[in-house]
Specification:
Elements lengths: L5 E6 L15 H10 L4 E7 L22 H11 L6 E4 L38 H15 L5 E4 L9 H9 L7 H24 L7 E4 L8 H4 L5 E4 L7 H12 L6 E6 L14 H13 L3 E7 L8 H17 L7 E2 L3 E4 L1 H5 L5 H12 L4 E4 L10 E4 L7 H12 L3 E5 L4 E2 L4 E2 L5 E6 L5 E5 L11 E3 L4 E5 L4 E9 L16 E13 L2 E4 L3 H8 L2 H15 L5 E3 L5 E8 L4 E8 L3 E3 L3 E3 L6 E9 L6 E5 L3 E2 L2 E4 L2 E9 L2 E7 L1
Parallel strand pairs: 1-2, 1-8, 2-3, 3-4, 4-5, 6-7, 7-8, 10-11, 10-12, 12-13, 13-22
Antiparallel strand pairs: 9-24, 14-15, 16-19, 17-18, 17-20, 20-21, 21-22, 23-28, 24-25, 25-33, 26-27, 28-32, 29-30, 29-33, 31-32
Helix pairs in contact: 1-2, 1-9, 3-5, 7-11, 8-9, 11-13, 13-14
Length: 649
């Protein structure tokens, strides 16, 4: 079953203290709002976090304020106008059962929130709660024409509830050993997903299912493939920020699965009544999903009375009317990428690793085409693989990188990556020798090559770094200059750090036969400091490795986003160009309000295909292009939020 492009995730977490549930629902109003919003799939609720069913139920308890089968009414109304209806069940939460079955609750090793805090309580899938949940899923599959099952608040968790403790002891697991307990938690989760699949397939074989934990973990393909597809929950204003989705999508597209990007209509996050983001934010976020090969989902929350909010669906419709026009060029696409960014999360298991975020920002701002990789990816597809700051290289990863470099692939490593501190060696020929960890922090970079946006000079680098020296066959891109001294009680200068002393410690960036090495944790620092010199040094290094083989070059400004997708079944490339600039409102909310049009953006695409036609989509306006050898050049006269350029071959 193909995912639809224009989805709404309709939250309905409704307290049992509220009466008149669904009292204002009408088929006509529900349908009119879906049409207003250009929606063609809506996730509707069987069971919410409070634990209630929104339909008559033998496996659960219908909401005490509900007098009719709301789920059936929503499904029938949606299907009547051709809108799909996946069905939601809260799996991890069931608040009405907390007092009835406290023995089913998940227990962390230590630390509990105060009982005076209004919150939901997590249940353990190793208890009889799982059977209780499975019967609810079975009932939905048997009684309703669901187009899929969405299960929420799940994931691998160590648990110390009485059931888990007893079963771990019986299995000989050392409950004092956190690693063993965590491993057992993975077994419990795998059993949960297996039994869910068996339950669904016993009624509706192959029905789509997604288990939502709020993030798709890079490197955990086993977790990803417990789903039939991926739904990348990523509300920029809801705690995820604008960095999260591009990173998740760049990884999701290497997994060979359909996926969608899930944002929200809310000004903040889930569960907000009366909060709306600007329509331009939704237009941009939906376009960003399309540009990354994803389908779209927008979160909403239904009022307890069951009436759909017209303001919300006018807002959603502003984005989805555009998506509807663009779908033909966005389905069944494959990303064109020169660079593979090896995920720190995939190697070390650490989420939101600043080194990955910093590297992704540099790649986006530098207009490089890239994917995010785990160790199972085919490295040979990429001209350069980046190992950002803290990637340990040994074992099977070392063997894979050895084969990659032997066949001509280039590595770009930084900081601790590819350095064996025990032996004091650099693991690949980056044109340098490792000397020591520098005693100076901060220190200074002196570029040895011209930079695009920085004049020649001596630039401070704030973080720790390594002293390296150039080999006979290496090429130096930057030197490392020390300050007079590190700041201390004994000696300090001015408000921050001492100035550069003129003494060169050695090289800072070098290039050799296997790639390049940058002697600082440059990506972590860019995430923290955002200094322009860092991005310019990185760009000079990556451009040296790519030489003249970049698949795309454009004059799109730094805050723009560019991707190139190959729609092979249509014999065409689709070049996505986006531009919007989030600004901070309040303490930690990034918003998009103004969409500033750009004019006369130049693009050159490198391809061995003979291009027959270039045009703007969805406008179908042909544009002039020049193909000289394997370079195709054109100018986009205007970009307002998002523009696609189609190259037929």
């Amino acid at each position: 079953m193909k995912l639809n492009f224009r989805q709404v995730h309709l939250d309905f977490h409704t307290s049992g203290c509220i009466d008149g549930i669904g009292s204002a629902f009408s088929k006509e109003q529900f349908q009119s709002m879906l049409k207003l919003g250009h929606v063609n799939s809506i996730t509707v609720f069987s069971k919410c976090h409070h634990g209630y069913a929104y339909h008559p139920s033998d496996a659960n308890e219908m909401h005490p304020g509900l007098k009719f089968d709301l789920l059936k009414a929503q499904i029938e109304a949606a299907h009547e106008i051709g809108v799909k209806t996946p069905v939601y069940l809260s799996a991890g939460y069931d608040e009405k059962e907390v007092a009835k079955h406290p023995q089913w609750l998940h227990m962390w090793k230590e630390g509990h929130d105060s009982p005076l805090i209004a919150r939901y309580h997590l249940f353990c899938f190793n208890t009889p709660y799982l059977d209780y949940l499975l019967e609810q899923i079975r009932e939905v599959c048997e009684r309703y024409d669901a187009d899929g099952i969405f299960l929420d608040i799940v994931g691998e968790r160590p648990c110390y509830c009485p059931t888990c403790m007893q079963k771990m002891i019986e299995k000989g697991i050392d409950v004092q050993n956190e690693d063993e307990v965590e491993l057992y938690g993975k077994e419990v989760y795998a059993n949960y997903t297996k039994r869910v699949r068996e339950t669904i397939d016993s009624v509706k074989p192959g029905l789509p299912v997604f288990h939502n934990g709020g993030h798709i973990s890079a490197g955990r393909r086993d977790l990803a493939h417990m789903n039939t597809h991926l739904e990348m929950e990523s509300l920029p204003t809801g705690g995820w920020g604008y960095d999260h989705f591009p990173m998740s999508a760049a990884y999701g597209r290497v997994l060979g699965m359909e996926y969608l990007g899930m944002t929200g209509k809310f000004h903040t996050t889930w569960g907000e009544f009366g909060g709306f983001k600007h329509k331009n934010a939704l237009r941009y976020e939906a376009a960003l999903s399309l540009a990354n090969g994803a389908k779209c989902s927008i979160g909403d929350q239904l009022h307890p009375n069951g009436e759909m909010n017209e303001t919300t669906y006018r807002l959603i419709g502003a984005a989805y009317a555009e998506v509807e026009q663009k779908e033909a060029w966005c389905d069944d696409v494959e990303s064109v990428a020169d660079v593979g960014l090896l995920s720190v999360e995939a190697i070390l298991g650490t989420r939101d690793e600043p080194s990955n975020v910093g590297a992704m920002r540099m790649l986006l701002e530098g207009k490089y085409l890239f994917d995010v990789l785990d160790t199972e990816c085919d490295f040979s597809k990429y001209k350069v693989i980046i190992l950002p700051d803290c990637i340990p290289v040994s074992g099977s990863l070392k063997e894979k990188l050895d084969g990659y470099t032997k066949n001509g692939g280039k590595l770009l490593a930084s900081g601790d990556s590819c350095i064996d501190y025990e032996s004091g060696s650099v693991l690949y020929d980056f044109g340098c020798r490792f000397e020591s960890v520098s005693e100076y922090c901060p220190a200074y970079a002196v570029p040895s090559v011209p930079l695009k946006n920085c004049d020649p000079g001596t630039y401070v680098i704030y973080g720790k770094g390594n002293r390296i020296s150039l080999t006979e066959t290496g090429t130096e891109l930057a030197k490392r200059e020390q300050p007079y001294f590190n700041r201390s009680v004994e000696h300090f200068c001015s408000h921050q750090h001492a100035p550069n002393s003129g003494i060169i410690e050695g090289s800072a960036i070098t290039v050799g036969a296997d790639g390049a090495y940058i002697g600082w944790n440059i990506f972590n620092e860019y995430r923290e400091k955002g200094s322009l010199i860092l991005r310019e040094l990185f760009a000079a290094t990556l451009d040296t490795l790519l030489s003249k083989s970049k698949s795309l070059v454009t004059t799109l400004p730094a805050q723009g986003v560019v991707t190139l997708m190959n729609q092979k079944n249509k014999n065409r490339f689709v070049n996505h160009l986006l531009y919007a600039s989030p600004v901070k409102r309040g303490k930690n909310i990034e918003v998009i309000e103004d969409i500033i049009p750009l004019y006369s953006i130049d693009v050159t695409v490198r391809t061995d295909k003979k291009i027959n036609r270039a045009y703007l989509a969805p406008q179908m306006t042909e544009i002039p292009f020049i193909q000289c050898g394997n370079e195709v050049s054109y100018t986009v006269d205007k970009i307002e939020n998002h523009q696609m350029v189609v190259l037929d071959y």
